[in-house]
Amino acid sequence: MYDVVIVGAGPAGSTAALIATRLGLRTVVIDRLAPPREKPCGGGLTPRSWKLLNALGIDYPVYGACNEIETRAAGYKIALKKEPILVTRRPDFDYAILKQSNAEFIRDQVLGVRGNTVVGRNGEYSGRVIIGADGATSTVARSIGINNFRGERSHAIAYMTIAKGPPSDKCVIDFDAVINAVKRVGYAWIFPVGEGANIGAGVGWGKWIDLREFVSEYAERAGYKPGAVLGHPLSLGHVRGLGRGNVILAGEAAGLVDATTGEGIYYAVASGVAAAVATYTALKIWRREKYAVDIYRELVRPYVEEVKKTRALSRIAKAIGTRKPVVKLLGKRLVELYSKVYTGEATYSLLLKPVEKL
């Protein structure tokens, strides 16, 4: 029997594996795809994301840096030159963390969890603690009776492409392009990646829209040649549960994603660390695996509270985002504050202050 069985080899699962093996836990990671595997994602590492990775001593690949972040909303363009957003590629990023963990890896499609056993299509894997880090449509979460995924009510849809084009050191966050094109609140992005860019767009709070054609055309208008366009659901900060019994949910499997920006790497890494530490504390200090979820719940409480705030802000954005007179009235100040949040200069409590006064 393993000390911990981790389902999912994304940032949450791979980070949990890395910390668990450093703590001396017998660890296995299971994923249905062999790494490196593609995952639709902007690949932006915000300052607090790369600072956390650096503090943990984790090496990670970087293919671009945004020394200027330009936000386009309500007809305004706000440019910030602060600490950079670094840009990675998810296949390489996830795999780099997994390799550093030196954990055992098994390729299998997980069908569910039964007690201390993860049931796969090709085998069964027993662990004293199980960490479900299997993303937005988590099989592990559903198998323990927690349904964080409720389609368009709980998740947005996003599409991205790796496009060839001119190198740059500027990131673009463009709300206007999506709102003007589809009359729905969302945003497009351009993040530089080597000789090109990661370009994409997403919308939430309503029926999912196929944005593949929009992403290709948006890339072309920006002077890039788009590649294949990939899509994936993305949590709107929908946290219904963090685990049950001896099963912990981490990253997007728990709904830990910023609902206003879609940024999930920070919460994935942070919750992966918390899951591993909770597992170690329960097994090696208290010697009771049933304590793992309660310990984990306390460790991630600040992240859960922050994610709830992003969900509330995302709902407000949906309500006013397409009302141009309202957006014009509030827009510049909110865009400035919002830009400071995703660069790590401010917190969501600051962003909520002008909203609370309305």
From TrEMBL:
Name of the protein in question: FAD-binding domain-containing protein
One MF term in the entry's GO annotations: oxidoreductase activity, acting on the CH-CH group of donors, NAD or NADP as acceptor
Taxonomy, superkingdom: Archaea
InterPro entries: FAD-bd, FAD/NAD-bd_sf, Geranylgeranyl_Rdtase_fam, Geranylgeranyl_reductase
Organism: Pyrobaculum aerophilum (strain ATCC 51768 / DSM 7523 / JCM 9630 / CIP 104966 / NBRC 100827 / IM2)
PANTHER family: CONDITIONED MEDIUM FACTOR RECEPTOR 1, GERANYLGERANYL DIPHOSPHATE REDUCTASE
Transmembrane segments: none
Domain spans labelled FAD-binding: 2-59
One Pfam family in the UniProt entry: FAD_binding_3
